[in-house]
Amino acid sequence: MLLQYLAFWLWDFLGHLHPLAVHFPVALLLFAAILELFTLKNFNSKLRHGIDALIIAGSLAAIISAVLGWLLYKNGDYSGNVLTLHQWIGFTTAALGVLTLISLYQIRKKDKFKQIIVYRGLLFFTAIGVSVAGHFGANLTHGGDFLTSTLPWSKDHKETKPTQKFDFVAFKAKAADTTKLDKKQEVELSTEVRAILAHNCYKCHGAEKVKGDLRLDGKHVAFKGGENGPVIIPGKPEESELYKRISLPADHEDIMPSKGGKLSQKDIDIVRFWIAKGAPWPEDGSKATVFRVAKLEPRNPVLPATSNNLTNPVDLWTNDYFKKNKISWPALVDDKIYLRRIYLDIIGLLPTPADQDAFSKDTRPNKRALWVKKLLSLDNDYALHWLSFWNDALRNDYSGTGYITGGRFNITDWLFKSLKANKPYDQFVKELINPTEQSKGFVEGIKWRGVVNSSQRTEMQAAQNVSQVFLGLNLKCASCHNSFISDLKLEDAYAFANIFADTTLEINRCDKPTGKFVDARMLWKELGAIDAKASVAEKRKQLAENLVRPEDGRLYRTIVNRVWAQLMGRGLVEPVDIMDNEPWSQDLLDWMAFNFVAKKADLKELIYQIATSNTYQLPSIGFKEVAMVNNPNYKFKGMVRKRMSAEQFTDVVSSVITPVFADSNLRYNPFAEAIKGKLQAKPTFIRASLVANNGFLTALGRPNRETVATSRESQANLLQALELTNGVMFNNVLKTGAERWKANYPNTDVLIKEIYLKTLGREPVENEFKVAKQALGKSPDVDAIQDLFWAIVLLPEFQIIY
Amino acid sequence: MSWNRRDFLKNTSAATLAAMAAGIPLTNLLSSCIGKNNTSTADTVILLWMAGGMAHTDTFDPKKYTPFTKGMQANSVLSTFKSVPTILDGINFSEGLESIGKVMDKGTLIRSYKAGDMGHILHSRHQYHWHTCYKPPQSVSAPHLGSWIAKELGPLNPVIPAFIDIGQRFTLGEGEELKAFHTAGFLGNEFGPFLIPDPSAGLESVQPPVGMSSSRFEKRNKLYYDLISKSPLGEYGSDYQKESLKRSMEQAYILLKSPEAKAFDLSQEPKESYDIYNTGKFGLGCLMARRLAEQGARFISVTTEYEPFKGWDTHDNGYTRLIDMKKQIDGPIAQLIKDLEKSGRLDRTLVILASEFSRDMMVEGRPDAKVQEQVEQPDIIQDIKNYGMHRHFTEGGSMLMFGGGIKKGSVYGKTADERPCKTIENPIVIDQVHQTIYHALGISPDTNYLVEKRPFYTTPDGLGKPVLDLFA
Question: How far apart are CA A457 and CA B90, in angstroms?
Fold first, then answer.
């Protein structure tokens, strides 16, 4: 507040000195650190006085820079990720500088030579700090790709090459006479303008920095304008702030871009011409350059030659990828890790100590493949594990909105049996799209009473959900208006939704009726026709047949990618619902999808193919931040570390400690029906996929399934930790389990060994054993055992799949 | 979902990322620095939720009173209670709300709320709309108002969960529909509500498990860290799953051990004060809200609890039942305002009273649209059970706002004095309500995240505008 009353220009001015001032601490401190390296053997070398002076000057300069930086932040328009990082690293560095100085003073004036190591540590950290802060600062000023964009292999570099085919002079000559451009011209011109905006304006008027509250990186934000209102007045370039600012003299204080130099006269003319022609921004103008569109048709790339004794085609592609990216194959994971992975990934349970023992004693050379096969043949366990994945995706649950008014249908019985029978995927999809009474819950959607937004009626829900789940395509935008993020148009969405409609739906744009109608049709005409006059049942049937044709590469790539993501922690394409994004290996994705169709769309076969590959057996990769997993520059090096799902965690607790759920929790009983006249054996505990959602499972990440969910969060959070720390249900389970174990294992040493074997798959190391033994005492009571269970199941080693 | 979440994390969530790197206390510090709008007038929000549809003409906007007589014309009844004066000149409340009437010099009375128009009336849909600003169903899981606030601002005091929801059980009728909006939606569970279904047992949620002594709790925690440090896991290095688990466990431990957790313990309240609040679950919820606000809570919702045909959901006996409802809310709400003012917190605490829609004796939904499935209402009333506001009315409604920069002693908007008693001046809709709250908190009106590549705003399309006239 104070700032507002003092001469603000002064603060502004000082703030603007920040980018200048920061060079001092960077240079001084870095140089000090470098010189310090030469004094490592002899602290009091000849360089000492020089270093002292550098540190004094550098630290002071760091403080001043931090203060100036803060002023710039207060008065500037910087915001976003990078700023926050820069700011905090900057402040921390200034603080480190002071600490270095203090420490140096202690040594020099008070002869505390023991502090030399502290001082050097501080100095080096400070040097790293200034470098990193400086790097992020430079990103803020010049853009994150300032440095890399000049590299020949950078994407930007390619884009800025003068490959433009746009001949403005010719274009202008042709369009000069017409008052209105034709569709094709609109597309061409607007694409060009957007390219100009993208290259010159987004850095400050995009998602990262929003100077003057103005964003130019999208149609609606651009026309909405900034803090002083609209900047584009269609038809009136002279009144449009956008044109006015870019056409100012280069030394004018309001010139835009304010950094990086004035636009070329040609670009300015293009923008002017564009606004004069009414600033057309047709959605389909994007088709030319802006969105990546994945190919629809399948592709069967020729497998690379075998090398390094690799046989699994997945590995041949990985090998190819590794070669191109100069990555070498690390050693594969050991038996223990491998067994734990395949158990959790295929049946959602841990191997028992007996399983582990048998596996380690198994001497067959192909034992890993044999065990994968064995697990895949446990059809009940397999189905109960994958049920959760499909329930999320098909938003199928035992409870939830809609059921209360009969507006929703459960498909668990159909789904479980389909998984258990390993129904071919094409058949599976067909039965969901052209459903029976048992499988209709997916396309029928959730019907709320009353009037719903036209983009949310059940027919449109079906269109959106079918596109998202089976095609990795976002139809949600386009079901309200022409999409800003893809080439899909409102009409496409309605045409697709009409497949599920009794009578042709009136097209609503942003919930307003338009009086227009469109016949039912496929999103890709290449996939076949729909008879718009036919009944819903018939249209669904046609859709189902059309979608599963082998020509539909999209459908099969989408499922292959989803299964890959389940096993490998990250899809070849991410996010898994946006299949137009670029995969890290197009060849691998295409080959797997093609091969999947060739192998009769057998999901178990697909899992087998992946799980037996060396690629799957690479050591897992941990990421420091969740955002790094989804980074477009992601390089595949091995499975991305996963965390047990709510169901995996609960089922393992049920199997090892004591059953979490009682029979009364069961909402679907797959074992009730007799098979061939024989009653099925009752399982020893109730799997979490068979119970209604509850507070515990929700806290651990089970979604509420009101909408399609195709992956889960694997980060922990406070609400989850509270549920695990003092939640009544979990506490009671552990207590009951402790009572059981106390009765079963009177010997403390055995008990400790057993719990380690059953949960972590290994015996405790000596130190762990000591700690556990101390906690349990000689004759442990129930409380002590319960607390040991608690501590162990909360260990990262237990919860994370390595 | 979480890939989408990752996607937007990548794009936008600076606070979360930085906080991840830095640990909890910084979360607070960082997020408060990031808000673009530095002119906030409130740090804390308390929502007093009148679940089930509170009739404005029988509460904060009384019209002509017609006492019950056998054989009376239903259409002649606008209010079933007498009007009583409030501290504001010329402003009356319905009988039974005298205590709140006496604190109206500290807040603003809004008499022009218009609920969303969704055809059939379904409480859960309107409640979903009120709390998320989006009409269900949605193709993206919409976050609750409290989750947006938790996401944007984080906790005020790092050990108190940012979003606390007091008084609602989810095991009653329409529990699933309630769950659908008591969620952080695409923002992620981290920002979901900390649920305290029963305020008198609230302490159990924030102390070591029932039956576990404090020393055992300490020992157990030490055992956990000992085992982590002794585990040969180190060879795998660190990853966000592991770090977030360790950090969350630490946060939980700190919360459960913190002196602030005492705020959840209502038995610590002096008896005199406790008795004023103790009108039932709602009153005690207000008391807990006050105690939490004192310890630095960010967003607290206290509900009269929604259960079909209970509470404010008066499909019959409207008059008689409202006598009881008013007893539940009048004293505690007035006391809450007075206590907050006395401690100096009212200035930075925005207290809002609201309901999903109003009620009327004759009109169901909007006056000009015939809605099916009206509540039965005889034209001639013989039985007192038919005397009351039993139909759902969306065209008018009352809200209260106190503190947090809101005008004192002010009235906003107006409804007609004759049936239909609909809004005739300064209508205010839910988008404006949300943006007014965000404005008070300093959250930018076009806050949004990319979900599946498209922006999802705090209010639909980011078009909502705060009602600046409400601010002092």
Answer: 47
* Location of structure tokens 């017609």: B66
Interface of A with B in 710-749 (CB under 8 A): 710-722, 724-728, 731
Q: Nearest CA to CA, how far is A638 from chain B (Å)?
A: 13
Which position has the higher pLDDT, B119 or A320?
A320
Query: Best residue in A405, A715, A731, A767 to probe B by mutation, most B CBs within 10 Å?
Result: A715
Tell me, yes or no, if A399 comes closer than 8 A to chain B by beta carbon: yes
B465 vs B445: CA distance, rounded Å:
7
Spatial neighbors of B259 by CB under 8 A, at least 6 apart, are none
CB proximity list for A272: less than 8 A, separation 6 or greater: A237, A243, A247
Answer for the pair A755, A747: CB distance below 8 angstroms, yes or no.
Answer: no
Rounded to whole angstroms, the Cα distance separating B431 from A77 reads 27
* Structure token pair of residue B62: 């009384």
Residues A387-433 have pLDDT tens digits of 999 999 999 999 998 898 899 999 999 999 999 999 999 999 999 99
A301 contacts A553 by C-beta, under 8 angstroms: no
- Copy the structure tokens of residue B322: 């409202």
Mean pLDDT for B303-309 is 95
B44 closest CA partner among B295, B288, B264, B333: B295
Please choose, from the candidates A351, A541, A354, A554, the residue with its C-alpha nearest in 3D space to the C-alpha of residue A470: A554
Dist CA A571 CA A640 (whole Å): 10
CA angle A340, A342, A345 (to 5 degrees): 105
Asked if the Cβ–Cβ distance from A799 to B245 is below 8 Å, we say: yes
Q: For residue B410, what are the β-bridge partners?
A: B108
CA–CA gap between residue A657 and residue B16 (Å, rounded): 35
- Does this model's pTM top 0.80? My answer is no
From A81, A623, A722, residue closest to B17, measured CB to CB:
A81
Judge: A461–B139 Cβ closer than 8 Å, yes or no: yes
Residues of B whose CB is below 8 A from A84? 14-15, 17-18, 30, 34
Which amino acid appears at position A508 of this protein? N
Element (H, E) at A767: helix A766-776
Q: Report which secondary-structure segment, H or E, holds B290.
A: helix B281-294
